[in-house]
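Changelog note: in this version the structure field was regenerated for every chain. One regenerated record is shown below for reference.
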Amino acid sequence: MLDVVYMSAESVREVEKELLELKTKGRKDVADKLAEARSHGDLSENAEYDAAKHSQELLEIKINKLEETLAKVQVLDAADMPTDKVYILSHVKLRNMKNKALLEYYLVSPEEADFEKRKISVDSPIGKALMGKKVGEIAEIKAPAGVIPYEVLEISR
């Protein structure tokens, strides 16, 4: 049985674009490096060739991982998700109850998570604590500094 990977249509397009880039430009670049390294002679003592082969292996692993992800994708549309509780694809505004700081996150699948873009995984400690919460409820998030209470201020798509 395949594990389902939930993603937005936008994220699926990004993964497909990255996969195409790796299969075309990425493979060509690695092939060029291998050809260049082969031209230097004896492959048994050719560190450049070994490095190029290693790059090729890593590239193929990444291509396979992206293909496996796409094979398991179920596209979710944020417009179809309710806003009464926090679900995947929810935009959530929170208040840290200890220091009163305001935070905003977008809850996504683990494959889409990007903390710099405020996209957090539903499987992360924050994501798990927020799932199913309603506006006004408190989510207690376990952090290295202890448990931090966050009030859910707003849920949108």
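Spot check on this record: The domain at 78-156 is CATH 3.10.50.30 (Chitinase A; domain 3). Residues 95 and 102 are 5 Å apart (CA to CA).
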